Each structure stands twice: as C-alpha cells, then as structure tokens.
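SAMPLE LOG
Freezer: B-3
Tube label: C17
Construct: single chain, 181 aa
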Amino acid sequence: MKKRSMADLNRLTPEAFRRSGKIPVIVVLDNVRSALNVGSAFRTADAFAVEKIVLCGISAQPPHREILKTALGATDSVTWIYFEDSAVAAQSLKAEGYSIIGIEQAEDSVLLQMFEPQTEGRYALFFGNEVNGVSDEVLAVADACIEIPQAGTKHSLNIAVCVGVVVWEFFRHYHLINKVQ
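STRUCTURE (predicted):
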C-alpha cells in the first residue's frame, strides 16, 4: 500500500471550492474559547463542503494565529461571517429558512444516528462553548437538539472532534445516502 500524493488527490483550489456545490449545512460556533478549535472547525468545514461558518461572541476570527495554525488554509476556502450575539445569529438563520439544531446533551435530544436530515432541509448546527455548551438563548429557539452517544467516563467530546463527527454524519447523509454530488 502506498500513500496517494497531493496531485493524486486532485483537490480543488480555494477559488474553485468557493464556487462548488455545498451540503445545506452551516456550522455555528457559539462562544468557542479556543482559537485552535475554531481553526479545526474551518478545516472540517472545508473537508465536508459546508456552506459557511458563523462565528459568534468570543469565538476568534481569522486571521488569528492559532486559527491559521489548525485551519491549514481552510480560512481561504470556507466562507464565514461573525455575529456578536448567538441568539441573534439563530434568529437570522431561522428567518433564512434554516432549522436551528443545537449539538447538546439536552432534554428531548435526538441521538445523532437517529436524526434524519431532510433532503430539502437546510441546517444551522450550533456547537457551544467548551465549558458551558450551547447558550440557553439559542436552545430556546432551537428546532431540535442532537446528542452524540458516548460510553466513557467524560461527559463530552472536544468541540473540534464533535464538529467532525456531526458534520461527517450530515455529509454522509447528503453524499452517500442521497447520492447528492
């Protein structure tokens, strides 16, 4: 077995990526403390072709040094915007027709493997602060909450890992299950 070269992978340029089709998903970072986690979310958003990232509150914004360290250029390909207030972002996205989904351990949350994205649906996935989770103001207007099942002793995953797991599941649904190209 031999690793494939960068040329073999035939990746898009940032310009071509911005023009390419995306899954109908927006990643929203609700007051994420770590700029390294923000950078990782950018890299995941690039890998799985999400529409954009919305940064809220204290979440660092490019061109922050630590974001650039983990994003490895994804800040050049992934569209992003900033809202000072996460609840305002949720209301704005809801008005644009997105379902507001909190990624949170909450009453009545749906386990990730049980959530069925609608093919015609558009989703804004809210990932919360590393300590406090998704803000109560966002949960108050959320259409649903998704929870990643866990079996260990810790009560949560690192947010960068959480973004990867959840966005992969949406990407898998849109590209592999529904054969959307």
